[in-house]
Amino acid sequence: MQTEISKVKNILEALPYIREFSEKIIVIKYGGAAMVKEELKESFARDIVLLKYVGIKPVIVHGGGPEINSILKALNLSTKFIKGHRVTDEPTMEVVEMVLSGKVNKQIVSHIQSKGGKSIGISGRDGKTATAKIQKMGIINEEGSLELVDLGLVGEITKVDTNLLKTLIDSDFIPVISPVAEDENGQTLNINADTMAGAIAGALKAEKLILLTDTEGIVIDEKLCNSINEEEINEYIRLEKISGGMIPKVQCCLNALEEGVHRTHIIDGRLEHSILLEIFTTTGIGSMITKD
Question: What string of H, E and C letters represents the secondary structure of 164-193?
């Protein structure tokens, strides 16, 4: 009986957070190991359905890097990254859209629906949800000056139209969005999934933006930062203690805060039920990013 009482107490611990976040939009970037390991895919789908049943409105933006890499390798197409962004030529873009908007997106929708949720998959191109322009990456060269690097068909979001998303949310669907957009001329562009998630969270004025990663969170000098602000982030980037793929993650969190998102988090997607641990427990997990 004590075991059963303990279970009830654990459920009751979540009550204040259910009350606080009910009817609120939470945007979740789904990627990394959580999309690869079967047990994590199953727990993610259950967690999302649970959020929906307690009145929270989840919106999912997903990646799919490992799947893209696998197909590119099978097709003997090379790929490289600059500061966490995939350099994308036309053949690569075709593979990216095929894998993300076709295979991966529909697998996620299917997983959620198998757990009792009602989900629908779209890309940023659908309903002109995300409009973008070609992105030039600024890097510091060996001479110490700023150099603009061509990433090919990689885009940065210029506009998010929330009409389709709000229609889906109001119709009780769980939107699942692949990070593919188009420019004003209809050219398909590859968007970093973290960047897409941040832009959508900002446009929806979401309560939370949660990024699932393959790390504990933001780790500086082998220590997890439970909370970190914009000034600290900029300094750690300058010192190259935040680097590579973590840079677009922290930048999209800061951009989302600027656009009105209340809280942003980078958490460990390798843990089962990591989303529930962040939302429904007093201590939470991972790193919370704040403006001040």
Answer: HHHHHHHCCCEEEEECEEECCCCCEEECCH
Question: Is pLDDT at 2 greater than 80 in this prediction?
Answer: no
Q: For residues 99 and 193, give the distance between their C-alpha atoms in angstroms, rounded to a whole number.
A: 14
Architecture category of domain 22-290 in CATH: 3-Layer(aba) Sandwich (3.40)
- Taking the domains of the chain in order of start, what are their residue ranges? 22-290
Strands 287-290, 263-268: pairing is: antiparallel
Residue 273 burial (10 A CB sphere; 0-12, 13-18, 19+): middle
Entry pTM: 0.92
Smallest CA-to-CA distance from 125 within 68, 179, 167, 170 is with 179
The amino acid present at 64, given as its one-letter code, is G
Q: Coil, strand or helix: which one is 136? A: strand
Identify the residue whose tokens are 């398909």. Answer: 188
